[in-house]
Structure to design on (1069 residues):
């Protein structure tokens, strides 16, 4: 039984790629490997990895040719990869190795072992898989493309000036980095195509290449048009007009809207609304920066509203001239000046500005496509801790009774003063009469007892603040702010509600640009202290059902910051330098390519036509037959695939009866007839064929045949 | 042409000695000679069998390329007439031996091998066993209904067909060089038959399925049938001439390497086709070469061309291939296998000459 071996007549080796293709693939693998490893490994490690790559590529070829089983191949590579890691760890861990190789040597050895064997294992597995089934070539492409992608990862979001090493180099060479990046992309695409390449006829390859080129040009033309369009619209999510529907311009769309009606239930993704550039170092107490838009101080019987003639320190418009100066209430002793620049991404009815802004001035918009307006802000920020301000009165004696009444008005509800009295009763007797201490006590009370939630609205109540304060104590910033202001006022502390944005700085990555998102809209109380001015006096409830706000997208913040800074490469200025599609160049290039193709066609045609004369008597006949075939191809008389020459001649007999004779003569020579026809016979037959064509083929068709430069390429 | 024939035959009669080897005296003869021999045979066959020109051509190809032919047809379609006409066209130029020009055997289930090979008979005069030649000792042997006999008879015939000899009582007897078998079988009515196995069918150069003849020919048959047959006036062919023609064809027709490559590649494609259980043998390709050469001569060429391959290859191969059950178009499979090689052949000609 055992002797009954089947004869192994079949050729046991499989066809593989030619050696030069393998070499190029190995080079590509090595290139990708270097890209992957250069941040990770030492030089010897990289060198070992390159060696591993080459070894793997060539060994995989041999393994495939000799039909190594796929499982075995994959097993071997997995074992080698794991073995490399284990052995190098052992070397690093063992005393003996450290002694024998010295510390540096053992590190280098371990590195080389890990990366060399790892690279071998990976590439071997990839190559074996790819040779087994072409679908796995995708993995190879992904491997190489991944390396390039990783290298250019900084470039995402169309950061033209990233990665730095590339753009810096390009700028230093005086080249637009865009073209360098496009070049890299084209190169990567070509390399990827190379991995799919199999042996093909040159003509087919040329056609494919040309087609790819055309597709690329088309894509380039289309996509560069779209990039421009995208910057104008909101695909970066900047304008906030697009998807959200209602403009999310924070507070105060209409002046008489109740602040309690603010709708916080917007489920949309927060949109960026403004970018702030700090022109000076500033780190606020508590880590929250307040950008005030307006203040509500007038009690109209229901809630607080903006007041005519009061709050003149709050700059609510830029005025006709683009400049605004406020009433200076902030005392310079306790404040310092912080200049900032605001770049609004969304229209706002009042300009948000870092409180307490004293001066606004419109400035040049660096990027009108991105920003709706830009203005310089000068703010007075508290330079001392609030506790240092103890011992001051809130309402200055100099205030008129109207003014005093204005800032102390509160609902006609005794519960406010009762509650406030209870709260301040427990104050340290030393500060029992201090306005600021009382305010702190109230603030602490609300922080401890309040529960921040956006689910309780209270807006249908007569006095939402009372509903909040004397009810569940559950509410959001507007409730807290109003409750605090009423409590303050009941204790004789001048207070008002400020509206705007509060940005928590500890959620940021740092840097001098600050991105304000739409969901940072906020309302907070401010109190007045004599000799200091208005002090931001926000209440931070300790309990909340809100998740912490998501961190600001650092990249977006940086990008917008750079746009605002007029970084020459970050922002496009479409009016001055619109993204040019080099139509001229494209048209020229395409025409040149077409011209080259035409010249190539005609050259080939001419060469084929005169070849019979040039090649001499010996080979005249074959070339004469080719001329005949070319002439027929040009008028559409090409031999069909799989058709014998005799049948072809038979099919065209109605056009050119002489073709049969010519074919027979050609075959007689080609197939080894003992009495082959000679050149003169061919000459006569060729003349006869031309006569036939002249007689049987219409003039237009023949003219077209004469012009057609590619007919000869169809001949087979 | 007629003058030419006279000259050829005349020249021969002066120079050749009947019964001698025929290869020595023909260097000056061209391929017109086998063509002329074939035309004489064809003319006589066409005289007797109407509307079967293509089949007659194939039979002649088989005869001149030293193959055998299996005709598959309905009863009464002229198979026997055709074989008989061929046999009668051959002049037995060696009347002294025991080999007849034409024999016919009807195969039946009770036939024994000795019935066709011959048998040792005791001669009372000499008190020895003498071999009495069976019907295989003939130039043209017609076997009717080859699938009706038992495998042992079929096997006995096998040796005769493949090696041109028969062995009786351990003594081998040579058959004539011109041993040409025309076998027939009935495609219907297969109950109680012994279908030829592939190995045996492989011995036949062609298996020709004959279609019914056309209307005009059939009418003509009715007109001429039964009218007293005068001895056919057309010239006959000597056995020697056929052998000479065979030799001329083998030596005088070029078969280019590209053609051989096309044959081999087609066979290989066929073996790898999923619709094929068993591919064709190398023997089939070996047999194809003389057949192609013969056809080339019929077409007036001294080289084998692609059209010969295209025409003959399916005829040579289709009965030797075992297809997966349910394969609807065997000829299509073979043509598909031949398409690539034929294209390569057509392209190959441009690199030569």
């Amino acid at each position: 039984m055992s002797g009954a071996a089947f004869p192994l007549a079949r050729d046991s080796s499989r066809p593989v790629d030619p050696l030069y293709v393998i070499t190029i693939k190995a080079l590509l693998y090595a290139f990708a490997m270097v890209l992957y490893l250069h941040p990770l490994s030492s030089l010897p490690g990289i060198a070992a990895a390159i060696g591993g790559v080459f070894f793997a590529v060539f060994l995989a070829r041999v393994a495939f040719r000799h039909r190594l089983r796929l499982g075995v191949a994959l097993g071997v590579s997995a074992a080698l990869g794991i073995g490399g890691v284990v052995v190098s760890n052992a070397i690093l861990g063992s005393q003996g190795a450290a002694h024998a190789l010295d510390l540096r040597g053992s590190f280098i050895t371990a590195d080389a072992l890990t990366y060399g064997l790892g690279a071998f294992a990976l590439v071997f597995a990839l190559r074996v898989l790819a040779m087994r089934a072409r679908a796995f070539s995708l993995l190879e492409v992904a491997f190489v493309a991944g390396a390039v992608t990783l290298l250019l990862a900084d470039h995402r979001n169309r950061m033209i000036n990233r990665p730095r090493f590339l753009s810096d180099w390009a700028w230093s060479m005086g080249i637009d980095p865009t073209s360098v990046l496009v070049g890299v992309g084209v190169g990567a695409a070509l390399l990827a195509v190379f991995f799919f390449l199999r042996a093909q006829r040159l003509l087919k390859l040329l056609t494919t290449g040309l087609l790819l080129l055309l597709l690329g040009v088309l894509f380039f033309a289309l996509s560069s048009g779209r990039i421009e369009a995208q910057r104008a619209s909101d695909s970066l999510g900047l304008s906030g007009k697009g998807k959200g529907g209602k403009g999310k311009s924070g507070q105060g769309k209409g002046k008489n809207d109740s602040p309690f009606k603010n709708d916080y239930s917007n489920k949309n993704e927060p949109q960026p609304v403004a970018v702030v550039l700090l022109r000076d170092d500033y780190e606020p107490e508590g880590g929250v920066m307040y950008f005030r838009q307006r203040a509500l101080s007038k009690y109209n019987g229901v809630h607080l509203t903006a007041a005519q003639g009061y709050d003149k320190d709050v700059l609510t418009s830029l005025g006709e001239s683009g400049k605004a100066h406020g009433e200076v209430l902030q005392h310079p002793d306790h404040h310092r000046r912080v200049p900032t620049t605001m770049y609004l991404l969304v229209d706002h009815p009042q300009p948000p500005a870092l409180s307490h802004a004293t001066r606004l001035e419109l400035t040049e918009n660096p990027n009108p496509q991105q920003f709706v307006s830009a203005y310089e802000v000068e703010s007075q920020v508290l330079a001392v801790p609030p506790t240092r301000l103890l011992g001051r009165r809130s309402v200055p004696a100099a205030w008129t009774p109207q003014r005093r009444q204005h800032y102390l008005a509160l609902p006609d509800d005794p519960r406010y003063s009762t509650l406030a009295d209870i709260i301040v009763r427990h104050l340290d007797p030393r500060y029992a009469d201090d306005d600021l201490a009382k305010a702190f006590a109230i603030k602490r009370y609300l922080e401890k007892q309040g529960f921040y939630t956006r689910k309780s609205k209270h807006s249908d109540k007569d006095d939402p603040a009372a509903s909040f304060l004397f009810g569940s104590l559950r509410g959001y910033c507007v409730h807290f702010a109003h409750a605090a202001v009423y409590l303050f006022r009941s204790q004789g502390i001048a207070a008002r509600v400020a509206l705007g944005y509060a940005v928590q700085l500890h959620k940021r990555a740092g840097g001098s640009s600050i991105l304000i998102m739409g969901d940072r809209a906020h309302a907070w109380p401010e109190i007045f202290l004599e000799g200091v001015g208005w002090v931001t006096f926000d209440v931070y409830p300790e309990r909340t059902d809100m998740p912490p706000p998501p961190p600001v997208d650092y990249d977006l913040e940086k990008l917008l910051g750079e746009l605002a800074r007029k970084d020459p490469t970050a922002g496009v200025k479409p009016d001055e330098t619109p993204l040019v599609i080099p139509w001229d160049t494209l048209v020229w290039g395409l025409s040149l390519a077409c011209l080259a193709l035409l010249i190539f066609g005609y050259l080939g045609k001419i060469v084929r036509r005169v070849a019979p004369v040039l090649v001499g008597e010996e080979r005249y006949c074959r070339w004469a037959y080719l001329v005949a075939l070319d002439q027929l191809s040009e008028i559409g008389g090409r031999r069909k695939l799989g058709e014998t020459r005799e049948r072809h001649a038979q099919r065209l007999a109605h056009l050119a009866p002489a073709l049969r004779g010519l074919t027979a003569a050609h075959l007689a020579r080609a197939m080894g007839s003992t009495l082959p026809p000679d050149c003169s016979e061919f000459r006569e037959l060729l003349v006869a064929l031309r006569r036939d064509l002249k007689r049987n083929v219409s003039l237009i068709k023949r003219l077209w045949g004469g012009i057609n430069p590619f007919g000869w390429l169809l001949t087979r | 042409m007629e003058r030419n024939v006279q000259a050829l035959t005349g020249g021969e009669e002066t120079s050749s000695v009947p019964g001698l080897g025929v290869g020595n005296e023909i260097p000056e003869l061209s391929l017109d000679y086998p063509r002329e021999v074939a035309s004489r045979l064809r003319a006589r066959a066409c005289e007797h069998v109407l509307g079967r020109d293509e089949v007659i051509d194939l039979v002649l190809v088989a005869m001149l390329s030293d193959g055998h032919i299996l005709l598959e047809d309905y009863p009464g379609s002229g198979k026997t007439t055709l074989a008989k006409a061929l046999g009668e066209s051959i002049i037995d130029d060696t009347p002294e031996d025991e080999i007849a020009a034409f024999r016919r055997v009807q195969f039946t289930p009770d036939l024994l091998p000795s019935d066709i090979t011959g048998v040792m008979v005791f001669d009372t005069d000499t008190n020895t066993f003498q071999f009495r030649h069976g019907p295989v000792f003939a130039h043209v042997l017609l076997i009717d209904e080859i699938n009706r006999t038992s495998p042992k008879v079929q096997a006995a015939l096998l040796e005769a067909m493949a090696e041109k000899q028969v062995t009786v009582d351990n003594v081998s007897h040579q058959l004539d060089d011109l041993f040409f078998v025309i076998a027939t079988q009935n495609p219907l009515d297969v109950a109680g038959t012994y279908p030829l196995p592939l190995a045996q069918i492989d011995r036949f150069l062609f298996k020709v399925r004959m279609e019914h003849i056309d209307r005009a020919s059939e009418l003509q048959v009715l007109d001429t049938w039964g009218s007293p047959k005068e001895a056919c006036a057309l010239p006959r062919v000597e056995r020697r001439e056929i052998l000479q023609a065979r030799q001329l064809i083998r030596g005088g027709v070029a078969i280019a390497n590209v053609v051989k490559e096309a044959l081999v590649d087609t066979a290989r494609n066929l073996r790898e086709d999923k619709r094929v259980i068993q591919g064709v043998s190398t023997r089939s390709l070996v047999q194809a070469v003389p057949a192609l050469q013969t056809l080339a001569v019929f077409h007036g060429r001294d080289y084998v061309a692609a059209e010969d391959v295209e025409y003959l290859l399916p005829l040579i191969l289709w009965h030797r291939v075992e297809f997966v059950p349910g394969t609807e178009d065997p000829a299509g499979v073979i043509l598909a296998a031949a398409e690539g090689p034929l294209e390569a052949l057509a392209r190959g000609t441009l690199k030569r000459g």
Observations:
- Residues 19-229 of chain A form one domain.
